[in-house]
Specification:
One of its GO terms (biological process) is alginic acid biosynthetic process. It comes from Desulfosporosinus fructosivorans. It is found in: Cell membrane. Among the domains are: 156 residues, no CATH class; 160 residues, no CATH class. The protein is globular. The protein is 74% helix and 0% strand. By secondary structure, the protein is an all-alpha fold. Helix 8 runs antiparallel to helix 9 and helix 17 runs antiparallel to helix 18.
């Protein structure tokens, strides 16, 4: 079940909201947990058992860690059990096929081994359970005594399958008790509609251009067409994932939860380091807190820093998918961040802002090529086309037609990906507060009906980050 579907928007969500608020406060968590399990089981009924097993084991380990205040070896053993179980499940379901294919390629064998289907959202809920157990082990938080509340933390459907990754400490108090007002609910609904519009109206439509370009034979793609296509993907993946995060944050607010922001206009950044402070914030903060800092962070020698960055960005790339192109993508950004930290940062400060921004966008767009092409050879071939290496035409009529067709959508996407509209809205509030309320209400009504119309007629509706 996806958020951008008619069943979710006009059946599952309204029924859940009605039951949640009509059955009274004592039953709200039960309603939300039941709805979350149903939401997950809708597409993968078998793997809901895996998730429930993970909940039971990690709840048990957390409880034992809370009781054992003395024995260090026992605590380390319990932590090890949790790490082996959680990472073992993730490795088997997500990376088993990659491991077998790599071994086969290296040994020259022809192994025919079936690979398991990837459980939806396993990367996200595995990281949440790991952060909970590690924080209990570190005695940063107390273990949750209620199995119901712990299960709700792991399974909560707004952020279950594609994040943001929620730390237990951030919502610990909200699990037991949370206040709710009509204004908060309305604010959450507005945020959900914004995310839905990003997904249905922007990501899906600009993504069609990239699908057309990617399906073309390499010999028929001009330099212009290659850049038009990969820029379309650059916009698609932002609106796809930030749209999902907006919907998750909005849904959470509708049920009284406050989730942290996951995106802060990353394409307005002026360095790779800043970009990664603004893109998929919850994942970046997870690796920083649980991998980078324990390794020593940046307060180490040159070679140790290189090693730390290699580990973090190798894992960041690998987290995104069971294919070596994701590892290359991660190490690509890790290398750029090291270059910036080591010597480029000081000189960049003297560059004009426009130059820094172009530098950031160019490197990010190149990075998305490694991300999107699972076959590295195909990705490198596409990069060669982008930079005019080969016999491909520089400009062709087909490319010009595509640009004219998508010109308005390109413009809307570029504006929507910047903080400009938000700044204008804040300015309008200060000068025309009363009119603003009316305009906003009309705006969200239009988004709702327009988004619903696209859900009815759209045949292209993938969530890119669902596969991670």
């Amino acid at each position: 079940m996806v958020f951008s579907s008619l069943f979710f928007t006009f059946a599952f969500l309204p029924i859940t909201v009605i039951l949640y608020y009509s059955l009274g406060k004592p039953l709200r968590n039960i309603v939300l947990l039941t709805a979350s399990l149903f939401f997950y089981a809708w597409g993968e009924p078998v793997y809901v058992l895996l998730m429930c097993g993970s909940i039971m084991i990690n709840y048990w380990i957390g409880t034992l860690l809370g009781r054992d205040s003395g024995g260090r070896r026992n605590r380390q053993l319990l932590l090890s059990i949790s790490l082996i179980f959680n990472l073992g499940c993730l490795a088997y379901f997500k990376y088993f096929g990659m491991i077998i294919s790599t071994i086969t390629a290296m040994g020259g064998w022809n192994l025919q081994v079936g690979t398991p289907a990837l459980p939806l959202g396993i990367s996200f809920y595995t990281f949440q359970t790991l952060s909970y157990v590690i924080d209990v082990y570190r005695e940063k938080i107390k273990p949750q005594k209620s199995l119901l509340l712990f299960a709700l933390y792991i399974t909560m459907f707004p952020q279950l399958v594609a994040g943001p990754i929620v730390h237990y400490a951030d919502i610990e108090s909200q699990l037991a008790d949370r206040s709710m007002t009509l204004e908060k609910f309305y604010s959450g609904m507005r945020r959900f509609l914004c995310g839905l519009a990003k997904k249905m109206l922007l990501a899906n439509n600009i993504g069609l251009l990239w699908s057309e370009v990617k399906a073309m034979p390499g010999t028929e793609i001009s330099v212009l067409m290659a850049w038009a296509g990969i820029i379309a993907f650059t916009l698609q993946i932002y609106f796809d994932f930030s749209g999902y995060s907006d919907m998750a944050i909005g849904l959470g607010k509708m049920f009284g939860f406050r989730f942290k922001e996951n995106f802060r206009y990353p394409y307005s950044s002026q360095s790779i380091s800043e970009f990664w402070r603004r893109w998929h914030i919850s994942l970046g903060s997870w690796f920083k807190e649980y991998v980078y800092i324990p390794l020593g962070g940046s307060r180490v020698g040159k070679w140790k820093l290189i090693g730390n960055l290699f580990v973090v960005w190798f894992l960041t790339g690998l987290w995104h998918g069971a294919s070596w192109n994701f590892v290359v993508w991660g190490l690509y950004f890790g290398t750029l961040i090291y270059v910036e930290k080591s010597f480029l940062q000081k000189s960049m400060a003297r560059w004009p802002k426009a130059v820094r921004h172009i530098y950031l966008l160019l490197l990010v767009v190149i990075g998305w090529v490694f991300f999107e092409f699972t076959n590295l050879t195909d990705g490198l071939s596409f990069l060669r086309i982008m930079f005019g290496v080969g016999d491909n035409a520089l400009i062709d009529n087909q490319g010009m037609v595509k640009l004219k067709t998508y010109a308005v959508l390109y413009s809307v996407c570029i504006i929507a990906a910047s903080p400009g509209p938000k700044k204008l809205a804040l300015l309008f509030i200060r000068t025309h507060g009363n009119i603003y309320k009316l305009v906003v209400n009309v705006y969200y009504c239009v988004l709702m009906f327009w988004g619903a119309a696209y859900m009815v007629g759209s045949t292209y509706n993938p969530f890119i980050y669902f596969r991670f």
